[in-house]
Amino acid sequence: MGDALFSVHGVVFNYDRHTAIDDITFTVNPGEFMGIIGPNGAGKSTVIRLLAGFLKPNKGFVAFSGKNLDKYEKRELAQNIATLPQATETPFSFTVEEFILMGRYPYAQKNWLYEKKEEEFVEYIIDTMEISHLRGRTIDTLSEGERQKVFLSQCLAQDPKALLLDEPVSHLDIRHQMQTFDVLEKLHSEGLTIIMVLHDLNLAAEFCSRLMLISKGRINADGDPKTVLTFQNIEEAYDTVVIVKENPLSGKPFVVPVSRKYLGK
Amino acid sequence: MRRKQKSVVVLTILVCLLLVSILLSLAYGKGIGVMFHSFFNNDGFGLILRKIRIPRTIIAFLVGGSLGVCGVTLQSILRNPLAEPYTLGIAGGASFGIALSTIIGFQRIFGAFANPLFGFGGAMLSVAIVFALSKKRFFDPNSMVLFGVVVSLVFSSFVFFLFSLLDPDKMQTTLMWLMGDLSSLDIAFIPMYIPAFLIPTSILFFFGKELDILSLGREKAQYLGVNPPRFYKGLFLLSSLLAGLCVSASGIIGFVGLIVPHILRNIIGAGHTVLLIASYIGGAFFLILSDVFSRYLLYPVELPVGVVTGILGGFILLFLLIRRK
Amino acid sequence: MWLILVLFLIPFSVHGYDRIISLSPQITESLYLIEAAKELVGVTEFCKKPAEATKKQKVGTPLRPDVEKIVSMHPDIVFGTREGNSPLVMARLERLNIKIHYFNRPKTFADLMDNFLTLSKCVGKEEKGKQIVNNAREALSKLKNEKGYRVLWQVGADPLVVASNNSFANDIIVLAGGSNIIESELPYPRINTEEVILKNPNVIVLMDMGYNVQLEMERWKRYFNKVKFVILDAYSVGSPTPVSFVNAVKTLAELFP
Is B206–A106 a contact, with Cβ atoms under 8 angstroms apart? Predict the structure, then answer.
């Protein structure tokens, strides 16, 4: 328990009068690759925001490395956790370099400009993410896939211990989805803890080593993909009939929703 | 790194333009030689130079620059390139303060100090109200803008109410002053205004990094290690203070805080650290130049400088918008 | 119904009118001068001269006359101005069959005299009117013309607004033997202070118009050490009658006997 990266204990969170998260408890250990799945409105994004410290629980607590999130300075927290929310938008045309450099803010001195070593770190990120061809472009001229890479690079520039992602691939085509997961898998293999909200159950099963299924603000199931993605669990959470098969290549579960017209008698 | 070199070039050009506009403002119709000669001699033009042109140029510099910086700051926080220094209801509050002082007749007591004093007082009153209202919303920019608009509307209605009670002869000059006026500030103010303007501006210059990040929105800004409510509060307060000072020194001068950041962003890019400084220099240049137009276009008749910036700025903005697509 | 008929008949009675409403301070004061004030039943909030006028019933301000009040007072004539009164309100009054006589704002001394005579004829005090006009003309003819001093007539401060050679005030300056240093198509232009310094006036006329007269005098003393100041009542210049006009000319002329 003491070496858990995140520990969430008895957390309740309300938006005004509506209860979004209703008493959840779980821990995430260093090096996990965890997917949070569940139907729309189940509270997936709320969980990410609670873990990231953007929302404060009404009851219970969220701790990172054994220390309550409240006790962290914002900059200190940003050195440990990088979060990519569903939508990041700015009306201004920053260049890719400028944009990634913002990820160094938690480390920057209170100087007027960023120091040389911060710029060098950005160079390193640009190299590892293989986006040096985008360097001088402004972010408003990038395609969705390119932009996602740049956003991810900004998170990596924070040199975090944990990366939280809220539906990072739902608006990408399959090529860019795969590219993103390749990068994430590589980062995971280097020791980064990744927690992500995913819509696509099959992608979640394929890449995550642990899945947490939530619905109506509660945890329905938590564990490896095979134990979570049973047709009973899914039918209960989503209220939809599905068939669960095994992916012949990976041996991971594979979910096919069943159309109403085949149900009948 | 190409952008950095470009920034240096653009900043150099801006400084040159600024110097040219300052010389134009000081030496118009006389030439630079005469200007330097008169400055050290007590001839007729020397009097005009020292008592009228120099103070006026200083005020145009301070106000123009501050409007530029205010514009950049608010545009970033509000994530809206069309935000203006007066977005938080400052104009309404200032007009109210001045209308009130006109109707009570404070001009008789405070003289030249009445407009600056009550303009600033009114502006700060509206800011205080917006802040008090915003406290519960954790200084969320969108709510602040909404409060600003409402407070401004309420104050404007009060202004109309006061003016309907007032003899039209008496409100005439007040209205003219509100349309932007660099001519009437008493010289006695200048030693006071220089630090009052420069201290908040130079503090704002150091928030380039935070402004970059705040423009990504409250949630992402927090994930990058900025504490948004704290910065929203501080930056709004500083820029409101500056905008209030601008109104108190020169009435309401539109478009400077809008168009200068807009043009410069197109040239040097969105990075706020450089943009803040460029907008200061650019704003000062634009206002000094507009003031030269307002003084000499129909000489000896003077145009309200707010009208010149509006027409000049409006046309430039339209041109840019049309050309973009 | 017969009430309306009676109201229509009243204007044709011998004495002129019995129930007059004035929507202009200038007309109010003129009515007192020609001794027609007894018939004056309503004035505006801004009618402050002579002091007795403030005791009359108020019918709003010149820009916003109170239609209901005016109608309820059953005036047989309303005196208004084209420039000073809201055209919308006046149109509404006309639709309610209120008789209105309009005056144009005087642009010259001659206009002022004409208006004054028309007004006195209207209210059946032609003799009194003529007498006052003749007195005014006589008083002015005694003054020497062309004394050659240069005058700045300041209308507003912050920003500086002055009366140009195309303003009504210019007639006061010229009749008093001076010349206006500001020439412009606009009657009351906002002016560059530099021009004033270059033209170097001998006299600066200040008016009590919502700016601080003492402070403006201090300001001008920074640039001119020999300039003379004249302070005129804004009311008497802004809403002049032949009498107040002549007084203003005399005040100015007395500076350079």
Answer: no
